[in-house]
Amino acid sequence: MAKRKIFSDAETALAGVCFDGMTIMSGGFGLSGNPEHLIAGLLASGVKDLTVISNNCGADGFGLWTLLNNGQIRKMVSSYIGENKLFAELYLAGKLELELNPQGTLAERIRAGGAGIPAFYTKTGVGTVVAEGKPVEEFDGALHVRESWLRADLSIVKAWKADPEGNLVYRKTARNFNPNMATAGKVTIAEVEEIVPAGSLDPDHIHTPGIYVNRIIQGPSYEKRIEFRTVRPREEEPA
Amino acid sequence: MAKRKIFSDAETALAGVCFDGMTIMSGGFGLSGNPEHLIAGLLASGVKDLTVISNNCGADGFGLWTLLNNGQIRKMVSSYIGENKLFAELYLAGKLELELNPQGTLAERIRAGGAGIPAFYTKTGVGTVVAEGKPVEEFDGALHVRESWLRADLSIVKAWKADPEGNLVYRKTARNFNPNMATAGKVTIAEVEEIVPAGSLDPDHIHTPGIYVNRIIQGPSYEKRIEFRTVRPREEEPA
Amino acid sequence: MPWTREEMAERAALELKDGFYVNLGIGIPTLVANFVPSDIEVVLQSENGMLGIGPFPYDDDVDPDLINAGKQTVTALPTSSFFSSADSFAMIRGGHIDLAILGAMEVAANGDLANWTVPGKMIKGMGGAMDLVAGVQRVVVVMSHADKAGNPKIVESCSLPLTGIAVVDAIVSDYGRFTLDRNARSLRIDELADGIDLETVRAHTGITVLAG
Amino acid sequence: MPWTREEMAERAALELKDGFYVNLGIGIPTLVANFVPSDIEVVLQSENGMLGIGPFPYDDDVDPDLINAGKQTVTALPTSSFFSSADSFAMIRGGHIDLAILGAMEVAANGDLANWTVPGKMIKGMGGAMDLVAGVQRVVVVMSHADKAGNPKIVESCSLPLTGIAVVDAIVSDYGRFTLDRNARSLRIDELADGIDLETVRAHTGITVLAG
């Protein structure tokens, strides 16, 4: 299939897969490893009433924040929406639904969605609001809560490199939720910094096998905004 | 910790971690990716009454077959023990217990053991002997059976390369169950073809992070027996 | 004349569609790889942890670290990927494989499949068969239509231990190509081998056979 | 005089043992990395998918693809590894991390921890805190002993929404270093800051305090 997976830009890659009320998974941790161009494509498409599953919801002015700001998001499923004042306003005004998940439960629910596991048990959240209304059962002397899978109509992910078959390789901590989400979308679109020829990626080092990727775009450039630039001074040279 | 994880050979690496009646996971699919030297070390140790979790049980004369032949295995948890006449004899004579698992259920149970997931639901095995006595429940319109995690006192795995921290990289289909089992042992010992210096492995391409590996040995040589050598003739050169 | 193994594999290959991800079982299903139409591309998955199986190796290219689920030596392609057993079955269980072509001992009217054990004979184990039939989108069975005594293998209800319930979609036998209508509990003929007629099929089939 | 943030971090570092895999929370816990004793080696995990966190980068080495769970730029070490969020929390949930050092709002006598939200104020989310306290082998809390009004934060029972139940093993506060005996529902003093006496601790603690 190869070349047929490659699309010219976010707009063409998103054509035909968006509909109001749909559920979208969006990779990234904070602003690291975000599918910048596909988010911009969703903004341009105007698709609305979205349920968005993403660890965070962008940051003021960036990433998923832009969809929030454009009134396209009905509900967020996240673990942390701290760096986002707009989110607070909309939520407190009752204009946004929020389902908070522990970050690991969120990741495992997504992994379960891709792996055909409709439910699993975890210690995380037992005795907290997270476990309210969910079955709790003892295993190996400890209480565990049952969590269910998460799946999406569309997953948008950001990788470093792709080959024409859709095999993906991520870079450093920009990997985060991306490979898990790639498995859990009915349709998965990946954007990458570089599409490399078949044979360029070592088959032992593919993070996301191409079976999970329906469409690929190469982003023209990446902003990769840093949220907390933290540095140390260079040690003085010995005299 | 680094260097302290490196042991000189199988015997020293296995010292202090073996006891009669223990449960051992052993990586490999057929004879591919088997921890050859650690199996030999178990044979030499004489540890007995073992429950061994491994997809197969070696093949006549090779791998786990040698432990079976030496009367050290009480029970196997496997998905396929076809290429093993000794297994058949011992099993039919009532000298060996066998718990058959669908291969994917086996892999997922091991992954769950390493990931702190005591139980999960899968469609695999519903309506078959595999589901007998297990809770069955409907999700998304289909019946699913509840399966439980598998953990071991010791996991022995085979990788291609390790660094001194215990980061592992596998090669081709010799990967198979090894990375999953590495996460599910109270103690995990890895044998590799080469221990490389720190910094030699790309952090983006580590298959098993060192946190899962307690001890490492470099095998002196690998037999890597092929079960079904299957080849095609070279095309004739055009005249 | 009933179809040969190669003819059955060739007919099973008609199930392949461009872009499909496919898992082929051991035996005749493995031969299907030889009959992929030249105008389509399919990617073969092997449940021991590989996507993109290439042809068998030349004698001097054999690599013991590169085998398929039948433990035969194979080769990789430029776009192949390797992964762990848990990841491989997550791919299978998660419904990402479009088609599995597998052997069978019995198929029931409702699509139940028995293909892993015969009680009283030595148990070999189900390997990945139960995961495959439960997880893939479409299951096609390739088998001889009747057993050696001429008794039907397509039956009202399986007598052998099941591999999966209501999973079979189509059957390619030495008698022909068939679609199983699980709701109507009947077998529809899509194509018959030369010299095999409806009568013959009905005589060796334990469920309703429709002329297609 | 109560301990400073640095002094608290230095005391929390006494919890580190050679060979430990450790997750450090945001704030004072992050400072603990500066006080790892020179004769031991620990490996720091970051729940966004990294094992082996190095120091903060030089200004010209900053890499936006390399951040910790607090979204700060960091560096890698020669033995670092990167992995997905699901793999990261499998590591945490599976009990492979020896120690987590975290901030807190309230700790109860039985080890219950509240550190993620205050009702009525804006909800930020629990991030990975619930997974960490449920999964790691030992949880050490670093926090001010009392709130700004002088009210105890170590209490019979938490009033704030919980992060986890019966999870806290030890506390380092500005008043000293303490072990929580969850069965006896009491706090044992391991070390006190200069000028802080048993009376002062008891006056600002909501549960039984033992002199150690």
TrEMBL record, chains A, B:
GO terms for molecular function: CoA-transferase activity. SUPFAM superfamilies: NagB/RpiA/CoA transferase-like. It comes from Novosphingobium resinovorum. Gene3D superfamilies: Glutaconate Coenzyme A-transferase. The keyword Transferase applies. Keywords: Transferase. This is Succinyl-CoA:3-ketoacid-CoA transferase. The keyword DNA repair does not apply.
TrEMBL record, chains C, D:
GO terms for molecular function: CoA-transferase activity. The keyword NADP does not apply. The keyword rRNA-binding does not apply. It comes from the Bacteria. NCBIfam families: pcaJ_scoB_fam (TIGR02428). InterPro entries: 3-oxoacid_CoA-transf_B (IPR012791), CoA_trans_fam_I (IPR004165), NagB/RpiA_transferase-like (IPR037171). This is Succinyl-CoA:3-ketoacid-CoA transferase. Belongs to the 3-oxoacid CoA-transferase subunit B family. Keywords: Transferase.
